Amino acid sequence: MILFAHTITARLEYVAAFLGNHFSGIPLKLTSDKTEFSAYPGARINYSDKRITADECWLPPFTLLFEQGIRPQPITCFETNGYKAFFKTEGDFPFDILAAVFYLLSRYEEYLPHEKDLYGRYAHTASLAFKEGFLTIPLIHYWLKDFSTILSHKFPLFSSGNDVFRFLPTYDIDEAFSFKHKGWMRNTGAALKDLLKGNRARLRLRLKVRANQAPDPFDSYDWMDDLHEQYKLEPRYFFLVAGKNSAYDRNIRPRKPVISELIRRHAGKYDIGVHPSWQSGDDPALLKNEKEMIERAAGITVRSSRQHFIRFHLPGTFRRLIANGINEDFSMGYGSINGFRASVSVPFYWYDLENESTTSLLLYPFCYMDANSFYEQQYSPQKALEEMHHYYTEVKKANGLLITIWHNTFLGTEERFKGWREVYQDFVKQLT
Q: How many CA atoms lie within 13 A of 246 on its CB side?
């Protein structure tokens, strides 16, 4: 497949690579030579203001892919084939799919002045997807399916590839244990709080666990291992190893042997990565320390990450990841609501808008996190199961990659998370 444009820009090359990989596994061939374009024997996309041949897919361009810099874009959404689109044109397709895909994948809107949420993150309520009601679907896949139909109609030999649905369970280990291994002062303070709140059942459980008379409520690791083995799953784990505790980093000190052993145990079975602490977002030097701490414990080189609390800012956070040798990040989603932050369900490379360049950082978008359902959306376990099935159905239709985030805390025996382990197991069972 070939694409003609009067000017080949870095933005256009980025989108062409994404579409080419989706359709055929290789980037689209780009040309600014009309003769080469006209003579090409395969599918032809004319991305210019005027038709070149009678046998082409004409896609008049919006200006976005030929611009430099970042500025507010005039976006007006409209309905086409039952879904939303924008950057309307008058060619063989109802809108400039290349510019629209770029806008969503690059997270262009997150570089513009925007509303922050309670934690200082980009608020999902500020996003086009939320405002226009398409946050819960991987909209780009809908567009690509229709675009593929147009191309197949014009070029009968065109093939859109053979992507298959995949499921990737991922886990964040923010707090490895509830009562164990936390030290005398920390447990005494927590026990006094239980006593003052009249929570005698929790106090009794705390004392039993500390005396090795009951399992720790957050120790769900064997149960998770059994689940993965039973259903032939290959999960990813991300470990929080902040050097000191803070309001949002409440892990057990990573220098304790039990944490090193936990990391080493999982690295021997699964792919693992760093879960950069909240504090590392304010002090970039901490990311290097945390990554090296996991590497020493596991005896591996860490190449993947997911931000704690899904706290990231563009472009700074992603640039720091690259500078520290991270080439895969799993933070592309919201920590306040479930859905498709970039409107896609397959990995894609991060485009640095300020530097106008495609980077080496591969982003893995997630669409479901247990903490969003429980804390933010306040769903019951059964309602959460229904939500998970919705995202499974959407990603399955798109032949995409379904990435979920769960925590060991939800999958343990803590009373407040009663029922969540069971619905997760039901979901995995039905999925596989």
A: 14
C-beta of residue 1 within 8 angstroms of C-beta of residue 98 = no
20 & 33 share domain: yes
| Range(s) of the domain holding residue 201 | 184-214
Is the CB of residue 388 less than 8 Å from the CB of residue 169?
no
Answer whether residue 159 is part of any domain.
Answer: no
Could you tell me the two tokens for 241? 């190893």
Considering the chain, what is the average pLDDT of its residues?
A: 94
Longest CA span, the chain: 82
Task: Clarify whether residues 71 and 118 are in a common domain.
Answer: yes
Residue 179, token pair as written in the block:
């009562």
Residues 17 and 190: their CA atoms lie apart, in Å, by: 53
Average pLDDT score over residue span 6-22? 96
- Burial state string for 124-152 with b = 16 or more CB within 10 A and e = fewer than 16: bebbbbbeeebbbbbbbbbbbebbbebbe
Q: Is residue 160 part of a domain?
A: no
pLDDT tens digits for 133-180?
Answer: 999 999 999 999 999 999 999 999 888 877 899 999 999 999 999 988
More confident residue, 190 or 96: 96
pTM exceeding the 0.70 threshold for the entire prediction: yes
My answer on whether 249 and 196 are in the same domain is no
128 and 266 both lie in a single domain: no
**Measured CA angle at 206 (ends 222, 180), to 5 deg:** 50
Residues forming beta bridges with residue 308, ordered by sequence position: none
- Name the pairing type of β-strands 2-4 and 44-46: parallel
Q: Is residue 266 part of a domain?
A: yes
